[in-house]
Each structure stands twice: as C-alpha cells, then as structure tokens.
C-alpha cells in the first residue's frame, strides 16, 4: 500500500516512516500541506496520514481542500490537540479517523488497516482469493493449510493484487504501491517479483496473469485451463 505522510517534524516523520516501511507500506513523506497538494495533483496514494499542526496551511484545511478536489482516499489525522471541537471539525471536513499524539505504532497500524478495509468495502483483516488467505493483521500468508513465505515487496504486491481481485492492476500503480518514490526497482523488475509469486502461488491453483500493455491480475487456474497453455 502506498501512503502519503504529511508531517513537518523531521524526527517524528522519520520514526513514523521507518515503522510503516517495516510494516510493508511504501511511504512518501512531505513536510507541508502545500507540498502535499502539489504531489497529489500528479500521483495516487491509497491512504494519507496528515499532521494537524502543519505550518502555514494546517491539516484541517488540507483535508478540506483534498475533499473539495474530489480525492476520496482515507485520511487519518495526527494531532496533539485533545479538544472535542478539533476532532469534530476534522471529521466534518472529511477526515476518516483521528489519532492523538503520543501514540504507539501498533495502534497506528491497526487504524490504517481498518481504514483501508473500509475503503475497499472489506470487513475482515484477512484477504482471500481461492485457497490463498492473507492475514494483514499478523502478516501471515497461507494456502491449503501451508504457510507461504513472502518477502516485503512480494507481500505488498500480493496484498495490492488481492485487494483489487479479480480486476487487473495497472503496472505503474503496482510499482508505486511497492516502492513509492524509492527508485530501487524499475517497471521491468516488477516481472521478477511476479515470477516469484507465480512460483509460490501456482501450486495452490492461483495464477498471476500478465495483461500485455497494462499490468497483472490474479486468476484461479482451475477455472482457466486454456490460460495455462498459452
């Protein structure tokens, strides 16, 4: 999942980014509302974490502008303000959740998972497709009673494919979900990760199909005997 972090405190932002990256998120960080607006004009994110006390344009006004511009991604606001009026105003302006500072990372992760499930109309922390089950809370993948070992980017890729299954996922969006602004891998390298996933999923009847010129999607192999012969 690709996450936009809007936080002006460098130390706080570094700690949050490290924790979220370790949990499998592709985190892109900006230090101001103005920079966030610029980024969101050209790039897509699955969720945003916005600090309330930003300089100049604060988190409430940023959230209001995002909603006025038609952006529907979930927004979680971080704040040291405990006043009821601030929380009510933020929710009325379009925020989906609030988290008071200081907070523990496990709570932030749980709230992000809940918001992502809600945005995808999912009711469980477990994503399923055929025999595959992905427990996003415990970071475990299983199929037919067997544990499947996944690297960090393999996990991000299969989670993204599962959330959108059976619809295809654009290759560029999949790359962004896996890396954000990190240029560690290229579009061509995505096929390496897809090949690894095929090797781990096909024994369980699940295929990762390449749609030429677009991207990838998950398919049940039992239902598509002709596709395996292509």
Q: What would you say about this model in short?
A:
By secondary structure, this protein is an alpha/beta fold. Helix content is 42%, strand content 23%.
Describe the structure.
- With 230 residues, this protein is of the alpha/beta class.
- It has 2 domains: 2-119, Rossmann fold, CATH 3.40.50.2300; 126-229, Arc Repressor Mutant, subunit A, CATH 1.10.10.
- Helices cover 42% and strands 23% of the residues.
- The chain has a 5-stranded parallel β-sheet with strand order 2-1-3-4-5, sandwiched between helices. The protein has a 4-stranded antiparallel β-sheet with strand order 6-7-8-9, with helices on one face.
- The longest helix is centred in the middle third of the chain and has 15 residues, at 105-119.
- The chain is elongated and about 55 Å long.
